[in-house]
């Protein structure tokens, strides 16, 4: 019987590649594992899979009665609805510890670094398993994505060291150029609906009984949103009502200017203003230097809610 490996809902590149890279490792160690996903992939992830010949993990949204490993999250809100009916064998992550609990002991690799695939690379090293060239390339891209090509405050020396090692395995000389090529793809918004954009990299959180939805779109030029903001706000309101959320926040992150335009739809904007010590104008504000949802957004909101 296979064990399934998957990342969070609305999977980003780290979640998809993490499922692939961890599955390969586990199979080499004698565990029959299958990489899966909870949702549709982004243009960036599609670029990575095409670039290195990766296979799209199968879609699986129900895990009752299954054995699973989870990557890139540990919050119930980001898991399949029946996650508590599954046996969680392990968690590999780089976020805060969430609210998932288990009935039995589990393998747990959680590190305060920039990307889950950096942790998985350390697991390969620990077990002495060689990483195939194609998987190394995908892991490299996942780390470049999560660390915003090393600009994110979440990036550590371990992430940069691992990137150099993966680039060598994947035979990629200029991996920063690869990162920019990937972010140009990530910046593509033509043809995407407001809902597709708002949920492209979107997570829900329970903060002191208040449920918040927080999304992030990373681009090389914020002007791509000039004619889209009205539609984004309109859909944010729908998303908030449909999911019964207290707030929906979307970060429009400019990786070149190194900051984010924060869009807010909330029952209480003052809490958001207090969290970031700012004043919202027409429900938005520029947050200079803010690139990381995990480190520069979530902790500040949690203190308010």
From TrEMBL:
Reaction(s) this enzyme catalyzes, per UniProt: diphosphate + H2O = 2 phosphate + H(+)
Domain of life the protein comes from: Bacteria
Cofactors: Mn(2+)
Enzyme class: hydrolase
Gene Ontology molecular function, alphabetical: inorganic diphosphate phosphatase activity; metal ion binding
SMART domains: DHHA2
Annotated DHHA2 domain residues: 179-305
Entry EC number(s): 3.6.1.1
Ranges in a coiled coil: none
Keywords, ordered alphabetically: Hydrolase, Manganese, Metal-binding
UniProt-listed Pfam families: DHH, DHHA2
An example Gene Ontology CC term for this record: cytoplasm
Name recorded for this polypeptide: inorganic diphosphatase
Gene source species: Candidatus Sulfurimonas marisnigri
């Amino acid at each position: 019987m296979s064990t399934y490996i998957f990342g969070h809902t609305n999977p980003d590149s780290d979640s998809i590649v993490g499922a692939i890279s961890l599955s390969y490792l586990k199979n080499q160690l004698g565990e029959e594992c299958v990489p899966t996903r909870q949702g549709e992939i982004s243009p960036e992830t599609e670029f990575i899979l095409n670039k290195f010949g990766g296979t799209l993990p199968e879609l699986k949204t129900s895990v009752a009665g299954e054995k699973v490993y989870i990557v890139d999250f540990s919050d119930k809100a980001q898991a399949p609805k029946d996650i508590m009916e599954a046996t969680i064998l392990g968690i590999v992550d780089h976020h805060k510890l969430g609210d998932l609990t288990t009935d039995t002991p589990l393998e747990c690799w959680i590190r305060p670094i920039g990307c889950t695939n950096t942790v998985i690379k350390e697991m390969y090293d620990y077990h002495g398993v060689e990483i195939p060239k194609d998987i190394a390339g995908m892991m490299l891209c996942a780390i470049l994505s999560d660390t915003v090509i090393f600009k994110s405050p979440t990036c550590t020396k371990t992430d940069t060291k691992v990137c150099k090692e993966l680039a060598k395995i994947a035979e990629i000389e200029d991996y920063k150029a690869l990162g920019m090529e990937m972010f140009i793809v990530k910046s593509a918004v033509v043809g995407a609906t407001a809902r597709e954009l708002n949920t492209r990299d979107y997570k829900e959180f329970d903060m002191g009984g208040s449920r918040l939805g927080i999304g992030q779109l990373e681009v090389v030029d914020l002007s791509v949103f000039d004619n889209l903001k009205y539609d984004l706000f309109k859909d944010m309101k729908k998303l908030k009502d449909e999911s019964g959320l207290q707030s929906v926040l979307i970060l429009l992150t400019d990786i070149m200017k190194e900051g984010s335009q924060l869009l807010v739809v909330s029952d209480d904007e003052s809490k958001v203003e207090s969290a970031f010590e700012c004043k919202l104008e027409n429900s938005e504000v520029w947050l200079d230097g803010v690139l990381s949802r995990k480190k520069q957004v979530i902790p500040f909101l949690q203190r308010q809610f």
